[in-house]
Amino acid sequence: MMFSPFDSNEAAQHRRDYVEDRLSEGSPVVGISFDAGLLLLTVRKAQRKVFEIYDRLIFSGIGNQSDIEAIRVGAIDVAHKEGYERSPDDVTAQRIVSFSLSPPLKRLFGDQFNALPAVVRAIFGELGETPAEDSFYVLNYDGEFALYNGFAVIAGTSEAEDRMGLWMVGVTPEITREQALERALQAWAVGAMTGKRRKIGKDEDEPDPLRDIDEAEQIAGFLREELKTAQLEVGLLERFSTRESKFRLLSSADLESLLKSYR
Amino acid sequence: MGLDLQSLLNPGGQPLFTPPAFPAPGASVSGAPLTDTHGTTVIAVKYDGGVINVGDRRATANFAVMYDRAEKVMPLDDYTLLSISGSYARAMEVIRYLRTVFKYFERSQLQPMSLDGKLSELAKVIAAGVPAAMQGIGGFIPIFSTFDMRTGQPRIFFYDGLGARFESTEFGAAGSGSLQIRGIFDYIVKTKGPFHRMSREDALREALILLDIAADLDAATGGWSKHLPLAKTISAEGITDVSEQELREVVNSIDRMAG
Question: Which residue range forms the structural domain that includes residue A47?
Fold first, then answer.
């Protein structure tokens, strides 16, 4: 038997490839903050994907279902324990992501003797008093995380995320809920189309019959096709709600005006 | 044994919440010279389509009035109110606990806790405080009002000091002033008909008259000369505060009747 010198860079890269490969087909999630609240939007085929974590915290993730679930329940546990023992005011996305979730993810990813790292990319939205105080955290399978204001996206590939980010540029907190929904749904389509293209193996330089068509046209066509078999899901944190719970999933009636242009 | 995410996130695998014992485990309350602050009278009555909770604003410790803006009608979730009498410290702790576990259950399990589950949870926390209550501190009696989404009906439950639960068809009252007014509820039902057939306005008026009489007959129950009572309703739309303006109008008209 031959032993090659252990190369930790290579080992990490193998694990990274393994995870990225499994994430690549995940349906993107778009987070956007607007005057009356903050929302996470995605399109799903099967299970529910957008969840309430705490009074002002909302969550979604792509990846392995059980890893998403472990992150979700872990975040809920930490939030409720802290909220009960101290105060709901002390429960923040910053504390949960950077102190509670990131270190175990990093440990799991870095542990070379462990069979499999977690396959998950998560987005947390935190509702503030004003849109300027809203924030989004994107947390990766290796424990890396990043803070965003205004909007944030997660997708299966960084290329899809970049394109979605470009589509969202210029979003301001003054937009209404309807405008935010429209923008987020289009950004989702941009990300999902990028993922699909990658899967088929099309390159940018290859001739693409769709390329001459107007981009907006292309997005609308893609959405019309996708929404025939998949379901739009939007979780909302309402800034000015007087109910005990600020979170709700938008009903099909709420989404009707958005969806009718894609039938 | 490899690492896994779940055990890294919750190393002990312990249940997160257990009913808070009172006093804290290990503390002794024997011969305690301390008196705890008490909330006094709270009333729940049904009306056509919902349930009203009213409470006076006084909190007392023995013969001292500790506070005249106490809130004794507290929401536990979007459709449940807990009206409390007895030890204020313990009641507030219990409310904090119940709000947390109801929300925790719904968020982690992705379905709301059942009505029966909520009622048992309340019984458990009352039972956890019994040893202290027997020595004179921390005892409290709640009324649990809710709108049962399954049947589309308002429901009222009251408890004894050990955690036994009873459902009331029409009304519930707790606190030092509740004994003096007990018979009046039955008088109202027999002369004006059941509360659950009354309009919201009529039921609110009756509840406030009852509270006024409790304040007259019980030294620990506050009247409304300084601060208005608190009133909240629960209906299919959820919990609503009765506005200060509406309360003032009803209270003034009751005062005028008394001359």
Answer: 26-231
Q: Note whether residue A4 is domain-resident.
A: no
pLDDT in tens, B52-90: 999 999 988 888 888 889 999 999 999 999 999 999 989
**Residue A24 carries which side chain, given as an amino acid letter?**
S
User: Which chain B residue lies closest to A58 (C-alpha atoms)?
Assistant: B107
Asked if B5 lies within 8 A of A115 by C-beta distance, the reply is no
Asked if B111 reaches chain A (Cβ–Cβ under 8 Å), the answer is no
Do B5 and A76 lie within an 8 Å CB cutoff?
no
Q: Which of B2, B9, B78 sits opposite A243 (nearest CB)?
A: B78
Calpha distance B49→A202 (Å, rounded)? 61
Domains and CATH numbers, chain B: 36-258 (3.60.20.10)
> What digits encode the pLDDT tens for the residues B206-224?
999 999 999 999 989 999 9
From start to end of A57-156, where are the E strands?
Answer: 57-63, 120-126, 135-139, 145-148, 151-154
Domains held by chain A: number: 1
B78 and A52 in contact by Cβ < 8 A? no
> Cβ–Cβ of A53/B107 closer than 8 Å?
yes
Q: Say yes or no: B104 contacts chain A, CB-CB below 8 A.
A: yes
Q: Does position A172 have pLDDT exceeding 50, yes or no? A: yes
> A158 lies in a domain?
yes
Name the residue in chain B with its Cα closest to that of A245.
B78
pLDDT in tens, B223-251: 998 999 999 999 999 999 999 999 999 99
Q: How far is B223 from chain A (nearest CA, A)?
A: 29
Each residue's pLDDT tens digit, B97-130: 999 999 999 999 999 999 999 999 999 999 998 8
As annotated, the active-site residues of B are 40
Between CA B57 and CA B224 the distance in angstroms is 8
Task: Indicate which CATH number applies to the domain containing A148.
Answer: 3.60.20.10
Q: Please check whether residue B62 touches A, CB under 8 A.
A: no
